[in-house]
DNA sequence: AAGTGGTCTAGACCACGCG
DNA sequence: GCGTGGTCTAGACCACTTT
């Protein structure tokens, strides 16, 4: 009857414990040996489970010490799974300019919606990211109401939407697609970012795919890159 | 005496054979079993070597069939290790507008050079990428003369600089850093891209780190994203 | 049925970090 | 010295693809 693989069950067990705070960020997991006892298996299998968690960015291993729980900030293209703000490596203050509310889908979304999404209303909210008290990124977010329901911002874990999804709903980001364009600022964008209409800004459209069936997160970011360019690094 | 790990030796052996064309793209590697005989080891070790090659993007596995050699096009941020053009998923024609030549370093490079690089002259060349016979990306490239020497474009493998590095020099890309800015086109850029001065374009500065000590590849890309936005996807 | 990769067992020894 | 993770052996059985 059981079809799931043993290493996957162990992997999911540990992942859930990390997501629900049983193993806080910075702490060490129990040793591989003790997992072997707990699950009546061998190190090969336990190590396979831990390898997968490492690939997913939940832990890192330290030779001679143990497996340490990481803040999940795995790079995903320009952005990170920790949140939209991850692309900017300065101190960022976030101001919610439009509270989450149910609306129709915005036709400006750069990706084609699934049939399920088209049948659903969507939840929309807007935020502005500030660096040194100057607005730098204007950010629109959408997701399907049917797939998740409305999440009120006062429920945000540490103010982060992605952290809330992971820790409260056990939803993880699985992948993303994005489009980048350089455009002149419209009057509205310019007003929000405190710049002049027509200034060059970076427009990033992104779709995050999640581990919950039918749930995608859509984002539309307008970045003033004049003082704070978007930076990131990659390693193979 | 021997310090290298067995799986690493197997990994390097197979990688070299892929890079030198002994296992062409699309073909299947010998079976895990046969590698076990060849290296007098067990499948665990062979599989570890193949796992690493999979992570590096050289192969993929097909259950019941074998390990297939891939065209190495692993995504690296916006770009790909196959080449700068990888960020644009249309048919791209490349025109070499300035042949590789030895010059001083351009102060416009967005990254700080290493001491070694500062002591060396650099090799510079410029290309323009066309889509549907329209110029879309203007690309400046630099690297340290001392670290590699000058590579003449008629030696480019299939016209690709990165393929040349991999197949002729066994140099692989290890990582990259980049900065993105939205800027108005200068007169020179506008001229090269056939647009008007002041139009919004995307400026990408990138440094690729390679497996050869002291060799970084610097790139400066000016992209007209009006008709062809930069697209990419990621999976965790 | 034969051959491939995927999972798993039950050990062994080594390299690293720390008290 | 002890506990940790890293490498490796020598098998077994399963799942998938092809003939």
Which keywords apply here?
homodimer, 236 residues, alpha+beta, Chorismate lyase, 2 domains, 6-stranded antiparallel β-sheet, two-stranded antiparallel sheet, 7 helices, 25% helix, 35% strand, DNA-binding
Report on the architecture of this protein.
Two copies of one chain form a homodimer. The first copy, chain A, is α+β, with helices and mostly antiparallel strands and 236 residues long. Chain A folds into two domains: 6-70, Arc Repressor Mutant, subunit A, CATH 1.10.10.10; 77-231, Chorismate lyase-like (Chorismate lyase), CATH 3.40.1410.10. Chain A is built from seven helices and eleven strands. Chain A has helices at residues 6-19, 32-39, 43-55, 115-119, 145-148, 161-169, 187-193, and strands at 59-62, 66-69, 75-76, 79-80, 92-103, 122-131, 134-144, 173-184, 200-210, 216-223, 230-235. In chain A, the strands form three sheets. Chain A has a six-stranded antiparallel sheet with strand order 5-6-7-10-9-8. Chain A has a two-stranded antiparallel ribbon with strand order 1-2. In chain A, β9 (200-210) and β10 (216-223) form a beta hairpin. In chain A, α1 packs across α3. Chain A binds a DNA duplex (19 and 19 nucleotides) through α3.
């Amino acid at each position: 009857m059981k079809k799931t693989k043993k290493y996957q069950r162990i992997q999911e067990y540990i992942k859930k414990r990390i997501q629900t705070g049983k193993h806080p960020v910075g702490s060490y997991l129990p040793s591989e040996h003790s997992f072997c006892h707990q699950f009546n298996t061998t190190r090969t299998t336990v190590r396979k489970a831990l390898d997968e968690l490492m690939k997913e960015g939940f832990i890192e291993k330290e030779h001679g010490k143990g497996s340490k729980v990481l803040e999940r900030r795995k790079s995903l293209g320009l952005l990170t799974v920790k949140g939209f703000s991850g692309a900017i490596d300065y101190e960022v203050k976030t101001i919610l300019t439009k509270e989450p509310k149910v609306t129709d889908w915005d036709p400006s979304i750069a990706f084609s919606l699934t049939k399920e999404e088209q049948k659903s209303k969507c939840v929309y909210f807007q935020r502005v990211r500030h660096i040194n008290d100057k607005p730098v990124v204007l950010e629109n977010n959408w997701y399907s109401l049917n797939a998740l329901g409305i999440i009120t911002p006062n429920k945000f874990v540490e103010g982060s939407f992605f952290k809330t999804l992971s820790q409260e709903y056990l939803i993880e980001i699985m992948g993303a697609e994005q489009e980048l364009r350089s455009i002149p600022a419209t009057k509205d964008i310019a007003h929000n970012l405190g710049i002049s209409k027509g200034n060059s800004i970076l427009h990033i459209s992104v779709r995050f795919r999640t581990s919950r069936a039918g749930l995608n997160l859509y984002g539309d970011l307008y970045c003033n890159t004049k003082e704070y360019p978007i930076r990131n690094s990659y390693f193979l």
